[in-house]
Amino acid sequence: MTNNRRCGLLKLVSLRNASHSFSNAKPDSHLAATLTAKKSVSGFHTNIDDAVAFFIRLINEHRTPSQLELGKILMSVVNMKEYPTVIFLFAQMEFRGISPSMISLSLLINCFCRLGQMNSAFSALAKIIKMGHELNVITLTTLIKGFCINGKVREALRFHDKLISLGFQFDEVSYGTLISGLCKMGQARAAMELLQKLESYTVKPNIVMYRTIIDGLRKDGLVNEAQNLFSEMISRGIYPDVVSYNSLMHGLCCTSRLKEATQLLNDMVVKDINPDVCTYNILVNALCKERRIIEAKQVFDMLMDIGIKPDVVTYNALIYGYILTGKVDEAASLFGDMKKIGLAPCVWSYSIMINGYCKHKRLNEAVTLFKEMPQRNLVPKNFWQGGLVLMPYTILIDGFYNHGRHKTAEEVFNLLHNKGWRDVKAIDAMINGLCKD
């Protein structure tokens, strides 16, 4: 590393007021619990107790323990996601005067980033620079990812720009991390602008970057821009995969452009890209929302014919479609089929059916399903569908009051209260029912 780079980096680090020391670190309550809670006989690579014990023994028994061996142990602890433990072990190593390797310091930076301690991560970076280690793109990308996972994407971009000005170069992984961070923050357009700059950084865009931005644009409601980027990707010789197609299809379906979504499915088949269950779920769900239940069932049957097993999402979408079109018996039959083939209905599955039964005055069947939920360890919760909140308790309370069974409605509400489940919508339903009464 040149002196200019080293000075520039040290200045950058100092701007973050990174002056932490690790030499006095002690295990916190989380670490103490960890060291006593996990027991196994499978070896230190998968057991925290053995890893810590072996590490401590190495640094106590050898004046110059193998850096490679220490690095392997720290890596195994990182893989267990025991980040405070890594920080503790690193501190013990420094306390005994053992000089850390570049690998150990990089692992330490990763742990601080995972814990949201970015100032401490930059302290470790300062140590790397002062020790004269050559910085690599992996370590710098780790810091960029740390900013992103902690919701500081703008800081990640500023850090990137500063390093570029110092002559550092990043790779596809670095830019993929930045693009993903921007999209998660709802800034897909900014991610697209970054994508356009990559050629000036001598980095070639890849399928992962494109599909991340396409999905981000779709989530931001910018479906036309997602379509344009999809076309640009193909024109650049980067061929879309099933995930890319699914993202764009989802966006088109959400904007009621089913014809274009279906054309995309045909395009996949022509280009020998096998649609997956998610592809068909998108179409089934969109058709059901538009009450085109016959076409949705045809897609469902086609899915079965080509040997792709429907999942709970597929069944839920079709069941909801039947309920929307007043075909409660067909919905109930499909609900039963789901159980028969070994798929476990989720809370959403039960909510749809309970709502359907209540709307069609079949309250006893609604109660039967409601009583099944605790037996399957399913805790009722809110679901949004078509601008409405579907909550089993709320649905039942409304249903009973609307059909004159006030006492039963009160029993359901009391059950909600006794189990400690608080829901404003259920309280609203109860108040409305009492007012009507």
UniProtKB/TrEMBL annotation:
The keyword Ubl conjugation does not apply. The lineage of its organism: Eukaryota, Viridiplantae, Streptophyta, Embryophyta, Tracheophyta. This is Pentatricopeptide repeat-containing protein. It holds the Pfam family PPR. One of its GO terms (molecular function) is mRNA binding. InterPro entries: Mito_RNA_Proc_CCM1 (IPR051114), PPR_rpt (IPR002885), TPR-like_helical_dom_sf (IPR011990). Belongs to the PPR family. P subfamily. It comes from the Eukaryota. Signal peptide: none annotated. PANTHER family: MITOCHONDRIAL GROUP I INTRON SPLICING FACTOR CCM1-RELATED, PENTATRICOPEPTIDE REPEAT-CONTAINING PROTEIN PET309, MITOCHONDRIAL. GO terms for biological process: mitochondrion organization; RNA processing. PPR repeats lie at residues 101-135, 136-170, 171-205, 206-240, 241-275, 276-310, 311-345, 346-380. GO terms for cellular component: mitochondrion. Keywords: Repeat.
